[in-house]
Amino acid sequence: MADNASGDWTAGIVAMVAALLIGGGIPAGLYMGLYLPKKDERIASQKKLEETKVQSQVLLAKQADIKKLETQADEMAKRVEEIEAPFALGSSARMDVQAAREAISALADAHNLKLIPVRRQQPNAVVVYPGEMQVKFEYGLVATKLIIEAQATLHDFGRFVTAMEMEPSLVVLPSTLNCQGDSNGGREHIFVMHVFVVEKRDLATWGR
Questions:
Q1: Can you tell me the distance from the alpha carbon of 98 to that of 8, in angstroms, rounded to the nearest whole number?
Q2: Model confidence at 24, in pLDDT bands (50, 70, 90)?
């Protein structure tokens, strides 16, 4: 309402000045040539100001959206890091997950798993050793193969497998299992099991 009143007041003053000028012998064409361009310029400036305000609001809204997305990305990165906490640290060059292999070997010892007869004469033979193979999944996930060869009772081997799957510091995916019973009727059998241990991803480059 104030703007309309101001506009009317300004227009009235301009009309009065125009009347005085015209009455004083100033040509109407000169008046129109001086006033109308300024009027058009002011209208154009006002329009540009309104457009600038709208653009500013759009930019502020986009900045708010970007900030929200950045916050969500940080939260997702933390969630992924928590989920991947038990994943193993591996060596792609050697196709090995040494810490995970040692942890599984400790579980094997704890559950009375022994070297199979054919390995007992070999120097440095172990129950758990690298399978020299990796499987790559989407989004940077990698699983490294380990081979478990052991002689044990069925119950001891079963408890070992349960402990390995329940171990909070590991994510182990069983692949294959072969079992050879004792032909002499003994209680201990030969087990050959292939498993894949999931490795941690490089979260800094994850998704690129």
A1: 86
A2: very low
Q: Are 176 and 189 in contact (CB under 8 A)?
A: no
Q: How far apart are the first and last CA of the chain?
A: 57
User: Cα angle vertex 64, ends 63, 70, to 5°?
Assistant: 90
Instruction: Give 133-186 as a DSSP string.
Output: EEEE-GGG-EEEEEEEEEEEEHHHHHHHHHHHHH-TT--EEEEEEEEE--TT--
Collapsed DSSP state (helix, strand, coil) of residue 132: strand
Question: In whole angstroms, what is the distance from residue 72 CA to residue 16 CA?
Answer: 63
Q: How far apart are CA 194 and CA 145, in angstroms?
A: 7
Tokens of 183: 């032909």
CA-CA distance, 78 to 83, in Å (whole number)?
A: 9
pLDDT for the residue numbered 51: 78
Continuous segment of H or E residues that includes residue 197: strand 188-198
Cβ proximity of 146 and 101 under 8 Å? yes
What the block records as the tokens of 136 is 């790559």
CA distance 149 to 138: 30
Task: Specify the DSSP class assigned to residue 119.
Answer: G
Amino acid identity, residue 14?
Answer: V
